[in-house]
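Newbie here. two chains, one complex. Structure please?
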Amino acid sequence: MSMAEAWVVIALAGLGTFALRLSFIQLFDGGQVPRRISRALRFVPAAVLAALAAPAIVYGPEGFASDPTRLFAGLIAAGVAWWRRSVLLTLAVGMGALWLLKWLA
Amino acid sequence: MERSTAALTAGLQAMAPILPSVVPFGITAGIAALDAGLGPEGAFGMAVVVFAGASQIAAAQLIGQDALAVVVVLTVWIINLRMAMYSASLAPHFAGLPKRWKWPLAYLLTDQAYAVSITHFTAAPEQGDRHWFYLGCALPLWVVWLLATGLGVWVGASVPASWQLNFTIPLIFMALLVSAVYDRPTVVAALTGGGVAVAAHGLPFHLGLIAGALCGVVAGAVAEVLRERPGAGRAR
């Protein structure tokens, strides 16, 4: 697409995203978010973050488990993340494991 | 020290350990934009106007593959649907604030700002000045995001693809995921969300992501209801 088209895409993408961010913050002002919704909301971060992370680690460029080094490095990093709960450490170990495994392979 | 300043500083302190991890994420998003032919202006444009890493990267990849404009826009919206859920979760804490607070705070909403602030709000429900705490979390991340984007644009193509810097993205999400999982229902939510997203990976428009997220939320809610049933303790 042309750069002009790309700018329109970026603008619309951004406006919609802002609307999503603002939605309930602006709409639910002082009133109570329905109890069912607030109870369900507790699970949003866990569900979404897992939905974001899992496919990226499991799928290589040619499909399911086509890049075992990523899978192993991801599992090692998951272990570290669980053990230490440190974002920085998880990143360091994960990338280190990836490079090490690639070098060994 | 004024209470608002104290809250602001507390927010910054809570966010500080996460800020370094945002840097490779931002660099990756900047490089992705360059790879898609969007140039530095496009990279910064996306970083400021969209300000959502996962969707920025997905959009850049789609643009580079000559996808239809409408597909790119919808994909970004779908990936960022979870922002509405964060918005609902934060709404009670921002109730009563004027628009000049709500709109900037909403603009600054990210996974990390949400995770850090909601943890604090639920742990310390009596504390006031939540908007200042949240600002202390969210604004530094925005600054770091722009700096990292700049770094990505500047360093750009010189980083070898073999370094696989884009692997930092799932790593960051995984590290954040661990903090979001703290009891059995949240474990269920995460396993379901991840499992469905993997199974539905082939769906177009990143629908696998939203399918995983929705199924995960439902599964977690069901697990919680089952756990609270009388007699649930006996039948494991």
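Moderator note: The mean pLDDT of chain A is 85. The first strand of chain A starts at residue 59 and ends at 60. Thread marked as resolved.
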